[in-house]
Please model this.
Amino acid sequence: MRNVQNLSDPAVIKEILSRHGFTFSKKLGQNFLINPSVCPRIAEMGNAAPGFGVIEIGPGIGVLTNELCLRAEKVVTIELDRRLLPILSETLSEHRNLKIVNADILEVDLKKLISEEFGGLKVAICANLPYYITSPVVMKLLEDRLPIETVTTMVQSEAAQRLCAPVGSRNAGAVTVAVNYYSEARRLFNVSRGSFMPSPKVDSAVIQLSIRKNTPEAANEKLFFRIVRGIFTQRRKTVLNALSGSMNISKTDAERVLSAAGTESSLRPEQLSMEQLFELCEAYEKLAGG
Model:
């Protein structure tokens, strides 16, 4: 069994990948985490511990997976690229509490997986997400209302700023509102681009989403997120123009909605607090027919 710690050595990695005929896929956004000091921190802060099962998304060559297996009761790691399966079988062969699943995370029935694989265990998710798919994966994990404690994931530094921003701040967007609706988000620590192979052009950060047991009260959740997505696609406009344009109502009707919600029409969408967004949704449903 090859010492997993050697997987922080670029020469060792290149030898393994070459032997398996593996080349990095730009399409899949493959940047493997190899920094030996980062993975233990993610595992420990990400609830890899006795009494926990962990779902890992995107194991790469298995450096983080190893740390998770050393700490958690059971680990299920989900990898899209079938070319990595023989590599993972080699680098992680010593672990008996590991299951490797070859699948697209966006198509996996995670509730079923959790039920079948983690009976009686608390569940956490750890991931090193390709930058191009960060938002879709995060939203799936939140919207599926999974029985999980936390999502601890590596994302692009700019994405971390957006995901962890307070609602009502300059960096807030529609995804910020959704993240805050379902969880409490915090930035754990930064990770330099040199911690990956190949090295990306930007730095990263590890964030953690602690899942809310009870989400805030939106009277009409579907309408709430429809309005949020709509107005934030026109975030450079005033909330009056954004609401009118995105919801296809007249400015007169939009003004009536905003007045009923107690919201100034000259504000920008990112200036609205969560409570103001709830009130806007409620007023819209009453005055514009939902």
About this structure: The CA atoms of residues 59 and 65 lie 6 Å apart. The beta strands are 32-33, 52-57, 74-79, 98-102, 122-128, 150-156, 183-191, 196-197, 204-211.
